[in-house]
Amino acid sequence: MSKKQPIRMAVRELSDPKTGEMVGAMVPATKQDRDELRRRQIRVGQWLKCDISQPRNGGFWGLAHKFGEVVAMNVPSFSGMDPHAVLKRLQIESGVECDYTAILIDPVAECVAAFIGQKAGQHMESVVNIAFDVVRGQVFEQRVARSLSFDSMDEVRFQNVMHALAQWVADRYWPDCSAGEIERMADVYAWEAA
Fold this sequence. Notes:
alpha+beta, two-stranded antiparallel ribbon, about 15% strand
């Protein structure tokens, strides 16, 4: 089943026909949006359930990738990484827009110890097991970066994410620059590349 196209709405100040009061109202943004409402048989007065978000700015997405390029070019530990990988690594490091999963260390420790035992012998497996005894039974938290795609978040949230990542870079890797300066470098680089 394919996903329905969203209908773009514009917020306008209109007079409520029942009360005469001026109110903010959502109306179809274009003729195509009006036609789509008709096709879906949406009528005046009908109640609707809506998931409202601000559309994303495609130019800002390009700016986000330029931000990743600026980090890759200027922060040695990101050297050679593509912009998308930079963004994902920054998300995981900072915890910005991540889901958290609890992982019990025991199965991981057993697999690592068995692998080392196969490659380096039984004695090394025993040494590794002794080391893992320190952490056995503990639960570790794994961060999984959420998607930054157009469908997954609106523009305001995306801009907040990008600012938080720039702040992380400034605090952790580039203390001579503020988050704003790093964002401006990406902006300048984006204009030069255009």
